[in-house]
Write a structure and sequence with these properties.
This protein has 6 helices and no strands. The chain has helices at about 5-15, 35-45, 60-65, 75-80, 85-95, 100-104. Helix 2 (about 35-45) crosses helix 5 (about 85-95). It is globular and about 50 Å long.
Length: about 100
Amino acid sequence: MYMNDAVKATLDLMESPAGQVKVRTSYNISAMSICPAQVAATIKKYIPEFSIFLSPDFRQTIADSWPESIDDSAARHDWEWQPRFGLEEMTVDMLKHLTSEVLT
């Protein structure tokens, strides 16, 4: 999930009418499910010379223990949660906010 969608979800929940918020402990929220190679391929569409070297470390074991997907159907139903950013939108937004020093 792109950070902008995490913030959006927080604000959407806070602004929802109390009667729509059925879960009183926590909601799962989900967005895109991507891997580093997909991110790299999307960046290359905008910066053809972009390259990446991936070397998984101990954190990969942690990520491998996570579920394949998160069920956010309660949030989508109760307060109409919808992410705004997919991979393409996230990439465009991130590149737009990078400074020229980072891009050189």
